[in-house]
């Protein structure tokens, strides 16, 4: 039987804003101490202060997840400073707009290095510690784009999120008997700063306004509204917590009904 998450330690990457911030705050509300890891150091510090105001320990670390030395420092500093490590949420990600035949190798590498490669090797570092203690949970942030080509203007993003789902299944299958659970969450259209960027980029290539782009996208959501970061954070909280103890290798949709498989 898995224990309560109270006083356990979680790392959340890309947590200076948006979904990552909501996840970090929700895990703190659940009783966890949280490492806020983000390349935006000032934003990470602000979120860490919010967590401390909730009465939990928090550590803000400036981390570029594409750099092996930064990833190593993230895990080493967590253990040295907070004394334990129980959960990882791989949330850091980027998007770029381009039609499939306009993708360059630089575009491919930039997106895949953050969204797929960094996730894989953060999982690797986390698993080495979790396997030694025979416990731990990893939640990888995928996307509805990993299950369906969300738009033709996001070809590499779509590929990267499909890769996240595949690695989640592989790690989960390999280590299911070792006390470690690995799951993914697939958000749809969520109100975040990244979503604002996507709307503006789509507007620039279509001649429409960002508001028109937003309304068209929300119009495809069966529930009729854009999601909130807390909608995603609630599902992550469940997957980190003991109520999901018989779940691993799953990719849970948080899409307002846009994806049903």
Automatic annotation (TrEMBL):
Source organism superkingdom: Bacteria
GO molecular function (one): oxidoreductase activity, acting on the CH-OH group of donors, NAD or NADP as acceptor
Keyword set, alphabetical order: Oxidoreductase
PROSITE patterns the UniProt entry points to: ADH_SHORT
Keyword Oxidoreductase carried by entry: yes
Pfam families: adh_short_C2 (PF13561)
Organism encoding this protein: Reticulibacter mediterranei
Protein name: 3-oxoacyl-[acyl-carrier-protein] reductase FabG
Family note: Belongs to the short-chain dehydrogenases/reductases (SDR) family.
InterPro entries in the cross-refs: NAD(P)-bd_dom_sf, Sc_DH/Rdtase_CS, SDR_fam
Gene that this sequence comes from: fabG_1
Entry keyword annotation includes Oxidoreductase: yes
Lineage of source species: Bacteria, Bacillati, Chloroflexota, Ktedonobacteria, Ktedonobacterales
């Amino acid at each position: 039987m898995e224990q309560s998450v109270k006083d356990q330690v979680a790392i959340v990457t890309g947590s200076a804003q948006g979904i990552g911030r909501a996840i970090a705050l929700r895990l703190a509300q659940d009783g966890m101490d949280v490492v806020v890891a983000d390349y935006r150091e000032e934003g990470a510090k602000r979120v860490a202060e919010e967590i401390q105001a909730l009465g939990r320990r928090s550590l803000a670390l400036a981390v570029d997840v594409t750099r092996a030395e930064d990833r190593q420092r993230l895990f080493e500093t967590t253990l040295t400073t907070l004394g334990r490590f129980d959960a990882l949420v791989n949330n850091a990600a980027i998007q770029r707009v381009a039609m499939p035949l306009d993708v360059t190798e630089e575009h491919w590498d930039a997106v895949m290095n953050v969204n797929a490669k960094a996730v894989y090797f953060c999982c690797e570092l986390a698993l080495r510690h979790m396997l030694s203690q025979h416990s731990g949970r990893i939640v990888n942030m995928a996307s509805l784009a990993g299950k369906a080509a969300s738009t033709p203007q996001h070809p590499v993003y779509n590929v990267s999120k499909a890769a996240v789902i595949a690695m989640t299944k592989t790690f989960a299958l390999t280590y299911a008997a070792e006390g470690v659970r690995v799951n993914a969450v697939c958000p749809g259209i969520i109100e975040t700063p990244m979503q604002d960027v996507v709307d503006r980029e789509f507007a620039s290539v279509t001649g429409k306004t960002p508001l028109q782009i937003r309304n068209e996208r929300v119009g495809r959501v069966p529930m009729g509204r854009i999601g909130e970061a807390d909608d995603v954070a609630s599902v992550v909280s469940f997957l980190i917590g003991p109520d999901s103890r018989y779940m691993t290798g799953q990719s849970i949709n948080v899409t307002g009904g846009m994806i049903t498989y």
